Task: inverse folding
């Protein structure tokens, strides 16, 4: 990394203290046009993703962006169009795709060890929103760019789509508080496999769970048991292969 930009002076000083040789500025525009850069990493609020990514790809630069792709469907469609037209390398930073648990489940699905999948269930609980480590990012608390389903659920929906997809939405139910969601649930299908997701803000421990359900005589991971899930108490996702029996299919 040779350069970075952030409109927040405090953030720039923090970066300068950690990486004194990096060129820093308040505006990203000079970076997008710079001939000395081959790739751009976009870690700004979601509403800015489309503008930065389109400019960078149009300048021939590879792009790695934080999710979500965009906050408006039209912006996302334009990003895909420009990526296709320019042919530059591009990716979204969905961090669960290469975790050990995800790779183990993918292998079990490919070699038939998981058996016939009968469902996937995703559940998340947060004692408060935003989570403590995100409170400086004010956009996370709002409906336009943040909320729990977009910020957390998207990781697990991407993982499910990667393993079993494509996903087709069937129904959604969202309840809002004064700003962001306090409850969100959805049903999808992957072929004939039912997929459910639910997240809530409630007075309970912070948890993240992803469960692949298979018949009792098969396993969903090389451990010989029927689920893989993720649970964390510190506000950060930490997927692992749990040794838990599968849920009984409804």
Result:
């Amino acid at each position: 990394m040779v350069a970075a930009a952030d409109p927040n002076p405090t953030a720039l000083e923090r970066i300068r203290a950690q990486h004194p040789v990096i060129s820093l500025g308040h505006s990203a525009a000079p970076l997008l046009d710079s001939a000395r850069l081959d790739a751009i990493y976009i870690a700004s609020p979601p509403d800015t993703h489309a503008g930065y990514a389109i400019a960078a790809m149009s300048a021939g630069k590879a792009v790695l962006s934080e999710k979500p792709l965009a906050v408006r469907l039209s912006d996302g469609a334009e990003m895909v169009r420009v990526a296709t037209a320019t042919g530059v390398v591009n990716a979204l930073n969905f961090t669960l795709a290469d975790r050990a648990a995800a790779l183990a489940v993918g292998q079990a699905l490919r070699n038939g060890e998981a058996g016939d999948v009968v469902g996937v269930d995703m559940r998340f609980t947060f004692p408060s929103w935003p989570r403590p480590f995100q409170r400086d990012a004010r956009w996370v608390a709002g409906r336009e760019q943040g909320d729990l389903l977009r910020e957390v659920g998207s990781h697990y929906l991407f993982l499910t789509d990667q393993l079993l997809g494509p996903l087709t939405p069937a129904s959604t139910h969202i309840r809002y508080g004064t700003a962001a969601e306090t409850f969100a649930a959805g049903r999808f299908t992957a072929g004939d496999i039912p997929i459910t997701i639910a997240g809530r803000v409630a007075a309970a421990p912070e948890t993240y769970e992803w469960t692949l359900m298979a018949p009792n005589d098969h396993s969903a991971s090389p451990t010989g048991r029927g689920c893989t899930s993720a649970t964390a108490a510190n506000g950060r996702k930490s997927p692992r292969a749990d040794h838990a029996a599968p849920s009984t299919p409804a």
Summary: The first strand starts at residue 3 and ends at 5. Residues 101 and 131 are 24 Å apart (CA to CA). The chain has a mean pLDDT of 86.
